[in-house]
């Protein structure tokens, strides 16, 4: 596939159990992040100004949504976090091993990764 001397490393692979549709109304900044959440730790309430494609690499992510719904994603699963305050959420690692995720943030130009609430 690649010419001699070119190195390509797959960082993560996951399957989305949801249908994904992504649209943009203008320039988009794409930011790739590797996030590690230690056992027992949480990510406080926040939302994103653009969609985020999340891939759980190791561990289990437990998300709490504004209506109280709890969603769990395990290693090998992917999902999209929709943009906007109405999709605010928390993330928890309730397991005994580190939670590792890869996330692709698709942000309107000049916007932050997330906004705390």
Automatic annotation (TrEMBL):
It comes from the Bacteria. Residues 34-103 form the Cupin type-2 domain. InterPro entries: Cupin_2, RmlC-like_jellyroll, RmlC_Cupin_sf. Pfam families: Cupin_2. PANTHER family: CUPIN DOMAIN PROTEIN (AFU_ORTHOLOGUE AFUA_3G13620) (PTHR38599:SF1). This is Cupin domain-containing protein. It comes from Kibdelosporangium aridum.
